[in-house]
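Cross-check.
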Amino acid sequence: MHISTKCSVAIHCLIFIYEYGEKKKVTSELLSLSTGSNSVTIRNILSALKKDGVISVKFGTGGATINCPLDEITIYRICKAIEPDFLSKLFGVHPLPSPLCPIGKNIHNVLHCSYQKIQNDFCDSLRNITLKDLLTDYHDFRRDADKILP
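Predicted model, tokenized:
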């Protein structure tokens, strides 16, 4: 399965924007420091999220804010905004099986049936996990880490 690291960086950015966007100006430079990613990559991610309506970015002075309810921002929506063709990269199928072989001439159709079911299940799973869920997990992990640290 393939979801690029850009999607995890986008989720990182969204959590950061949610947590700190009200208190400070969240810029691509700040997000670059937090994610460990290049600021150009961050700007491209923010641009894609803005285009999809997930965030707003102030012109000139900068600063990003979340634009819609957290339960409307799913992992599927984030991945689709960041990499519109991510599903086409999900499965690799060998391109030149022998048309003379009974298996070779049918394997693409056989695989398509199973792969389509897997892709549908995968997409359903991505649509069922929201930014609200991810923030809950973040707060749970942070609370647990705070218990361990002095």
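Helices lie at 5-20, 28-35, 39-51, 75-82, 107-127, 131-148. The mean pLDDT is 92. Passed to J.P. for a second look.
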